[in-house]
Every structure is written in C-alpha cells, then in structure tokens.
Amino acid sequence: MSRRRIDVVGPGELGADDQKIWRELRAASGAPANPFLDPAFTAAVGRVRPRAAVAVLREDGFPVGYFPHERGVAGRGRAIGLGVSDSQGAVLREGIRLDAHALLRACALSSWEFDSLEAGQDPFLPHATEELASPVVGLGAGFRPYLESLRRNSPGFLKQTLAKERRLARQVGAVRFVYDDPDPGALRALMRWKSAQYRRTGRRDRFAQAWITRLVELLARSDDPECRGVLSVLYAADRPVAAHFGLRSPTVLSWWFPAYDRAYGKYSPGVLLLLRMLEAAAADGIELVDLGSGPARYKESFKTRDLRVHAGAVVRPGPGGALYRLGREPVRAARRFVRDRPELARTAARTLEELGRLRAR
C-alpha cells in the first residue's frame, strides 16, 4: 500500500524537477494547456502575493499532484491569483483519488474559493454552486478555415468589422497590428484605458491593486515559452488605438486584459484587434484562444464553442468555514439571482455605469 504525504511549500521553493513533473502531469491529463495552470504562473503570483503556497502530494516520496492556492485570514483560502486567473484547480496524476476536505485540512485552510474551476476537477466539482460558459475560439485547423466559418455563421458581423477597419485607415491613418509588442509605453496605455473602463462601468479597478499591476509587469517580461505575457497592439497613424495583454502557452492564448482608446470607439478597435490577433496567433501555433467567462456580444460572434468552468467553494465545518459562509454566501446568492434574470442583469449593469460616471465627475 502506497504512503501519501502532503507538504505545503512556497511557490519559490519548487525546483526544476517539480516544474518538470507538474508540466508532465498537465500534459498527461489531456486538458488544454491553459497558462494559468502552469507552475510559472503560480511562481509569478508567489512573487507578488506573500500568502501564496503549493501543496505537493507525494506517494512513496514521489510527487503525484500540486495544489496552488493562497491563504488569508482565519484560513480562508482562494484559488491562486483569484480575480485574474481564468483557469483554476489542482494538477493531479491520473487516477489519484483526493478528498477536498482532507486536502484543505493539510493546507490549514478552512475554505477554498474558486471562480474559474476547469472541467474535470472531480475533487472540487461537488462544491461548485455555478456552472459558467467560457467561450473559446478553436484555431487548430488554421485561421483561413476559421475565417470561412465566421463568414458563414456571422456574415454581417465580419462585413461590418472589415468595413470599420477600412474606415479607420481612411479617416485616421494607416492601420498596422503588432502581435507581440515589446513597447512598455503601449502596456502603460492599456492599463490606463482599462482602469478608466473599470471606473466608468462601476467595476472595481483591478489596476488600482498593486499586486495585479506588478503581476502583469512581471509576466510581460517573462520569456518562459510555457507561460508568458503577449502584448498585442492595433495602431492607426502610428498611434495605439487598442491593445490586449494576454497569457500564452505554446498552444493556448488567454484573452485577459483588452482595452481601447475611447476617442476611436466608433471604429470598434477592440474587435478589429481581436480579429487580427486571432490571425497572428494561428500563425504562431496557437490552437485555442480562451475568451474567458462573462457575457459579451463580441464573444458570441467570435467563438467556435464553449468550455465549462465553475464557481463555488469548498468549506470545512468549524468557525473558519462558518465565517466564510457568513461573508460570502449572501454575495454569491445575490450574484446568481441577478445573472439568471437577463433584464435584471441589464438594469444592474446600467446602474453600475451610472455610479461609475458619478464617481468620475
């Protein structure tokens, strides 16, 4: 009978052997190579979040699984990078049976919250309270077949998009696209536009949180082919009009932080950028672009299918678990109530935008 042990270490304590085994386990799972579940992403979060940790599962001394997480007050745990990570869960050898409560106990966690748990995470799925659609664009056959399917399925959308690109070139200046732009000025512009968008729509400004800004800057400098940032920029007359900062592995690109200059909003520059980015990504070996969960009309037009992700929390009995339920369950219930009622969701969005405008005055 094999002996199992769970060791909890800091992300920086994982060596090259652990990284290799982690990636081999991910590859053997058959799941998309999402960069958010790569050890390099956990290591980057560990550099900006001091309470980040990894539980290493060992059988007879050999690693058979990794569980990245963060630990907060009263043992309240969260997925690594919660709030900005688009794929979450544990990385386990096939056939490993794991009890979620026992895992949390070994990590000294009273709860563990997730909002983008990937499919196939059997130890945690019974604790999910929501299933969300995460639209993706399949590019495995290349960009040309994808464009043909887009032309068949959304002919009006594609025609309008290409017409807006021609109008942008005619009225503003020559349009060019850079898929992997090293310009730090373009990244700063993207952050300004995104912050303004968050405030305008009444959402929490993620770039007002120092750790998120530092994480993006850190990943922008990474040269790890398994997990690195890609800054894509659309220029008109040599001025950036839209940009996107995403995270990529060799085969998956995650649509992460898109934004545009509102002065050029009538040309839909963000949509133009996404179309050109899909073309460049396909040429660069990307087989799947994950647009992330959350409603957006343009995602419905671009997607080829949906993946399923889950939100919820594992909560252990006891004072810490009770504290989590008291603080988070009403919020989650209210969010589900609104999301399941489209008209109410639209009203809530309009209210948030109005509050954002009032705060901006």
UniProtKB/TrEMBL annotation:
Matching SUPFAM superfamilies: Acyl-CoA N-acyltransferases (Nat)
Organism per entry: Streptomyces pactum
Pfam family, one: Acetyltransf_6
Annotated BioF2-like acetyltransferase domain residues: 159-300
Protein name (record): Cellulose biosynthesis protein CelD
InterPro entries the UniProt entry points to: Acyl_CoA_acyltransferase, BioF2-like_GNAT_dom
